[in-house]
Amino acid sequence: MADRPSSTVAKRSKTKGGGNSLSPFLNLFKRPKSANASANQSNSSRVSVSSAIGAHDPIPGNDAGSAEPTVSSGNTTLNQDPTTPFQSARPPLSSVPDLLGSTVGQEGGHENSLTSIPTAGKASQTQVSDRKATIKEGLGVASRFAQTLLKKLPQYVDGNPVKMALSIVKTLIEIKDEVGDNKDELTRGLRETEATLQAVERTVAISVPKAAEQEIDNFKQNIREEMKNFEELTDKFLVTQILDYEEYKKKIRQIFQRINGATTSFQVVMTISIQNQAGQIHDDTKKAALERLRPSEKADYKTVVEEQSLKREACTDGTRVKILEDITKWANDRSLASPRVFWLTGQAGSGKTTILYTIAKRFEEDVNANQSTLLGANFLCSRQSQETQAQTRILPTIAYQLAHKCKSYAYALHVADKFDAVNHEVATQMKHLLVEPWQQSEATRPPELPPYLIAIDALDEIKDNKGPAFLSDLLTAINEYDLRGFKFLVTSRSDPQVAALCESFASKAVCRLQDVPIEEAKSDIETYLKTQLPELASTPEFAELGRRAGGLFIYAATAVKYLTPLDSITVGEQTEMLYDFLSKSYEPASSSDATSLVDELYRQIMCDAFSKLSGKVLARRLRILYTFLCTAERTSASIVAALVPDGDEEAAKAVLRDLHAVLYTQDDRVFWYHASFPDFIFTQARSNFRINKKDFTFSCNEPAHHSLLGESCFRIMKSEKSGLRFNMGSIMSSFLFDSTVALSEQVNQNISAVLRYSSHHWTHHLPSPHLINNDNLRCCISEFLQIRVLFWIETMNLLGLKNQCTPMLQFASQWVLKCGNSYSELARDIGEAANFATYFTGSPAAKSTPHLYISALATWLQDTSLARKWKNQFTRIPVFTYTKGSIDLPLMTVSARGPIMAVAFSGDGTRIVSSSSDESVRVWDASTGVELKELKGHTNLVNSAGFSSDGTRIVSSSADNSVRVWDASTGVELKELKGHTSSVFSVAFSSDGTRIVSGSNDKSVRVWDALTGVKLKELKGHTSTVVSVAFSSDGTRIVSGSSDNSVRVWDASTGVKLWDASTDAKPKGLGGYTSLVVSVAFSSDGVRIVSGSSDNSVRVWDASTGVELKKLKGHTSLVFSVAFSSDGTRIVSGSYDNSVRVWDVSTGVELKELKGHTGSVNSVAFSSDGARIVSGSDDKSVRVWDGSTGMKLQELKYHTGLVSSVSFSSNGMWIVSGSSDESVQVWDASTGVKLKELKGHTGFVNSVTFSSDSTQIVSGSYDKSVRVWDVSTGVELKKLKGHTNSVHSVTFSSDGTQIVSGSYDNSVRVWNVSTGVELKKLKGHTGSVFSVAFSSNSMQIVSGSYDNSVRVWDALTGVELKELKGHTSSVHSVAFSSDSTWIVSGSYDKSVRVWDASTGVELKELKGHTSSVNSVAFSSDSTRVVSGSYDKSVRVWDVSTGVELKELKGHTSSVNSVAFSSDSMRIVSGSDDKSVRVWDASTAVEPNELKGHTSSVNLVDKNWIISSQGSDHLMWVPPEVELAQPFNILTISPSGVATVDFHQSMIGVDWVHCYTP
């Protein structure tokens, strides 16, 4: 086997990306992009409509070559002028030919006629004679012409008139050629007309617009009539032989002119029709493009909110008069001095939305001479809906509405084709969707075009308080660009950030509703109340209601709702309600009660609803109210009733009725009218009060109520009748995927709405541990884990919520830890449940819910008390046995499309970002492995990627010299940071997300503003490539690692290198490295730095002094990536040696080695809670591992190199193996447990075998020695020296007194075992001796050599007895049969041959191997031969017939050695795959089945075991494990091996019995 290349250049070669000649290190990191990927995409595939319908080169005055820009939704190019093809093809009318030579327009003259008669002078006799000859010739031509035409005309009866006309023209051309009448311009004219008809034909072939269908019928009739005229005229000519040839020619020409005229008329109609049709298509295409903006319909002022009966309303007539006039005047002011933005502000409930609604309606509907501005677009923000609270939906909606109002803007927007900006940040949307199209359309907008008003309401209701940021982007655009023609009206509460932004506004562009004179506000409210409650306007209480409203419209509006609970309420009842309401006074429950007008109203509403109730009834109804306000999502009354321990649906509905003024129901979900009401209930000082000397306590203790709801969720999930149980989907068979079974009806029937809510949201109701006692909840969780958690995962999978399982359990684990250190065991159990959830949901097993148990639980290898409890109740699932080896099973493996360069978790642990050599950045669901986004933009391999701390952005760096910032949720590129002049190897955000640091092959470290993309600093000092960079957690320092062998620390604000505090003389370069530094990172507290290097070490440094604290050794190749856990106690590292290792920071001890990757591990990271590790590798996988260390399991040691030789002991109890790892190892042949490791050889061990009594072992090695070992002690007994080159084969004589050896020195040597003395040296081979063996009586020796020969020697004299010739290449292995009558040999020529040992005659050639045969052996009864080959197979042959009895498959690389056990019942094999395998050597038919399963099976893609028919999915097994093949009864391998036993298991339709309650 060839050694692994020592140079990494071959692995990672130089790519494009800048820079001069690269060091081997750079070649290590820069993987090339493929030639195919870099090739430019051909444009030849773009098909335009114009080319499809026969477009020609442009002609003067025609825009045929000017095509409209490609529609963004497709590749079809629409020609701007659909008539172009016809215009360019149509000849001028003057070119329509005279049938016999004259052109149109010359009917009365004969200057150009072939038969024209001279008009000047007297004709001579010769001329007369010539004239007669000409006439005669003309009549002959005409006669032949007419005869031919008459024959062909009947052929032209066709349904397509264009084809008919075209056929006539073509025939005229053909006839002229036939009769020889081609002496004039007729051919040119006919061909031009032919071209016209061809253009029309192509058009008709595409389609005939409906508008032209009548015209095509007319055209057909015209052509038929002219054909008839042709036929009649020609027939008449032939019958009468008209002497007036000119008259005949004239009539023929007239017929042709009529055909041409009809064609021209038809063409014009077709052109106009197609132009109209194309225009319609074009408009439809533009509309389709606009739909890509995904406008929010709910944000339009005309839209009903949530389809409620309550609509947005305009101001009541007579109210808000001055405010409306001021805004109207501002909007109509077209002077340059008029502010572009008007800000309307006021407290909650002051009527801002109503005012904006009125303005929007006025400027859209009430257009008059006094109003010069039009409503261009509007967006009313609201928390009632996701789409109306997303800032990124505002500008796309505005662009969509504006495009329907302004054609010039719509055209510019369409031409720009930047609709993808819908997914970009607001600043980019502002530029691409509003500013640029508006500016580009300016030239085509008439100067007198009125301005457009853009109205945006309730910026304060934008999600995540992004209102100020949106306004900032808007103001920036207005200041930076000249947006003439726009006026912006925006409203919001009096947010300090918004107020600061609007400080520069002119006073006339700001209206603060709180500054409106109180008398004016009261007057407006009085008018509103008179409109809403006209019957009460004359009552004395009415004025008091207006006074109490205090100018606050929400008070008035809520009072109106309060007084109108039913449509049928009478005026008297309303009057009584109003009197009662006003007659009650209240006193604050405490002096700290900061009351408000709205609070007074809410108190009255609460009193009316609950004051007459007491005891359990009052408590129940309040709990129902609190639940309406506390649920994770807006829910129904029935769900709320079920969540309240003693609740019922009728009581819940009663609460809704009594609180109709503040709560309403829509689509069976309960909402509140205004956010101030929940605030009121949750604030004790506001909702605990006194009225008429009676105390009312209506406030909700939110943590306590959440705790109650949390317990309710567990109570519901635990319910015997309707809670979680096994087989929640009533699934009939485990063989099928969920997608192939109609489950929705069963799921909806078995999983009630309240169970669905409880399963989805129980963690939402885990209150802060520091605010309330949570003993009950912890008990609920502990009980939940015992078994019901499995049913919960099952339920979540059925509900399509599997991706929530892991995050919810991790949240619960963290919550328990916050309850106190004494609950760490419970937190650990929850963590294991979270890991198991990941293991299932991130695997293909999740496609079939029963395989949560059949596959995931069966293959879950954690030997914990919790796992044992689970499996104790699932005793009838398949038995999965895994001999672990040194390979760890990850929780999840995600297959990518290219080598993974970098990986990182998002801050909340729910996502993973990876970058790859395939130029992509991808985002994955950390629980399920599902790809969420692919970020495209880089043009070369992407070296690094990471999340911002809030998870909203991703930064990446590439060999294309760029750093890019992406929106993590949409995948849209936000910024490209340019400046580096070569490949950028590393990039990272600062913890606050405001800066980005990058390190490059250009030797620089650069710091960037993360929002603007501006370079802030360039840190110079490194003398070679900067490979890794990172910020300290406080953002004050930057650490960098370089191929100049140094680690440097920089001041992040100044860019200055920090100095050594002790000498103050040199920059802090953390010395100690003699090799390049590949990765660096700060600990979370900033006091330590970890680095990984090409010298295979991980080092820990003091970040303030630069002193090396620890050097962690263990990796056997360069360390590509290092990272601290968030608590700073552990370090994870990834290496070129394919391993991930976890270290204890304080001691430097290796805690865990995670093996499984089959390629270099390029990147590793901890999740923020330290519970998981993610790794990315050259093997194109991203793997998630359990990050907890626990107790390190005892790991069996295996060969670390290829296994070159194996042998059974004579008693069959042991196996000995020799390896390239220089060791000889002894194994228990039944269990695979290692018994001894014999150390001493200093080179590759080529051959090993036991003595016949099994007390000794002999080995031969590349170190030229033969060694004898004591089996019981492992002690080396003898070292036999003499060979001058590698010893390739050794064996004992049957009596154990001698050893024979074969060597690369071409010799065979015989040794005395007891003395170690060389007895004989057998010479004769002319090449290396690969194999030697004694006959059973030890009288003869056989050897096989590189010289293609097999030779037989006398063991006593050393004389060569025979040379067996036949092999055509080197002989790798030889052996005697047990009776010494036969010899078997295996060769590089792929054959196994059997020879007569006495005569040397070849008896059999056994063919079947497809590559070199490396080893052969006889069974003890000499009836069979076993062979091992480079083709990875072990084969068993019948010696007498030469028939192959079986092929044993399982090795994944060359089989180097095979041997039978002494009883011939087993075969042992050793391979380059580092494994030793034991096989059943029986000759029975191959058991093509797994134990317990009655049909044959196969292992297919995604590691599903399926029935051979391919329909039954029996079981999924992890891709990292190797399933034992048929006959393979034991595998001793570092890769491990798994077996599945289906005995006693219940699968398929019986799977429902696998669970024992």
Features:
5-stranded parallel β-sheet, alpha+beta, globular, disordered N terminus, 35 helices, Rossmann fold, WD40_repeat_CS, 70 strands, 1557 residues, repeat
Give an overview of the whole structure.
With 1557 residues, this protein is an alpha+beta fold. The protein is built from 35 helices and 70 strands. The chain folds into six domains: 84-106 and 125-287, no CATH class; 301-515, Rossmann fold; 517-582; 705-878, no CATH class; 936-1162, Methylamine Dehydrogenase, Chain H; 1203-1468, YVTN repeat-like/Quinoprotein amine dehydrogenase (Methylamine Dehydrogenase, Chain H), CATH 2.130.10.10. It is 29% helix and 24% strand. The strands form 19 sheets. The chain has a five-stranded parallel β-sheet, sandwiched between helices. It is globular and about 135 Å long. Mean pLDDT is 80; it is low at 1-128, 178-186, 305-310, 587-595, 1059-1068, 1190-1196 and 1484-1496.
Strand content bin: 15-25%
The end-to-end span amounts to 55 Å
**Sheet of most strands:** 5 strands, parallel
* Poorly predicted parts: 1-128, 178-186, 305-310, 587-595, 1059-1068, 1190-1196, 1484-1496
Look up the CATH topology of the largest domain. Methylamine Dehydrogenase, Chain H
In short:
With 1557 residues, the chain is α+β, with helices and mostly antiparallel strands. It is 29% helix and 24% strand. Strands 2-3-4-1-5 form a five-stranded parallel β-sheet, with helices on both faces.
Blueprint (SSEs and pairs):
Elements: H1 24-29, H2 35-38, H3 49-52, H4 84-89, H5 125-152, H6 161-179, H7 186-206, H8 213-240, H9 245-291, H10 321-332, E1 341-345, H11 352-365, E2 374-380, H12 394-403, H13 407-416, H14 426-440, E3 452-457, H15 467-480, E4 486-492, H16 496-501, E5 510-512, H17 518-532, H18 540-549, H19 553-563, H20 571-583, E6 586-588, H21 597-610, H22 615-630, H23 637-643, H24 649-658, E7 663-666, E8 669-672, H25 676-682, H26 684-687, E9 688-691, E10 694-697, H27 702-718, H28 744-750, H29 753-761, H30 775-786, H31 788-798, H32 805-819, H33 824-841, H34 851-859, H35 865-872, E11 879-883, E12 892-895, E13 900-905, E14 911-916, E15 921-925, E16 931-935, E17 942-947, E18 953-958, E19 963-967, E20 973-977, E21 984-989, E22 995-1000, E23 1005-1009, E24 1015-1019, E25 1026-1031, E26 1037-1042, E27 1047-1051, E28 1077-1082, E29 1088-1093, E30 1098-1102, E31 1108-1112, E32 1119-1124, E33 1130-1135, E34 1140-1144, E35 1150-1154, E36 1161-1166, E37 1172-1177, E38 1181-1186, E39 1203-1208, E40 1214-1219, E41 1224-1228, E42 1234-1238, E43 1245-1250, E44 1256-1261, E45 1266-1270, ...
Parallel strand pairs: 1-4, 1-5, 2-3, 3-4
Antiparallel strand pairs: 6-9, 7-8, 9-10, 11-70, 12-38, 13-14, 14-15, 15-16, 17-18, 18-19, 19-20, 21-22, 22-23, 23-24, 25-26, 26-27, 28-29, 29-30, 30-31, 32-33, 33-34, 34-35, 36-37, 37-38, 39-40, 40-41, 41-42, 43-44, 44-45, 45-46, 47-48, 48-49, 49-50, 51-52, 52-53, 53-54, 55-56, 56-57, 57-58, 59-60, ...
Helix pairs in contact: 5-6, 5-8, 6-7, 6-8, 7-9, 8-9, 12-14, 13-14, 14-15, 17-18, 17-19, 18-19, 18-20, 19-21, 22-24, 22-27, 23-24, 27-29, 27-30, 30-33, 32-33
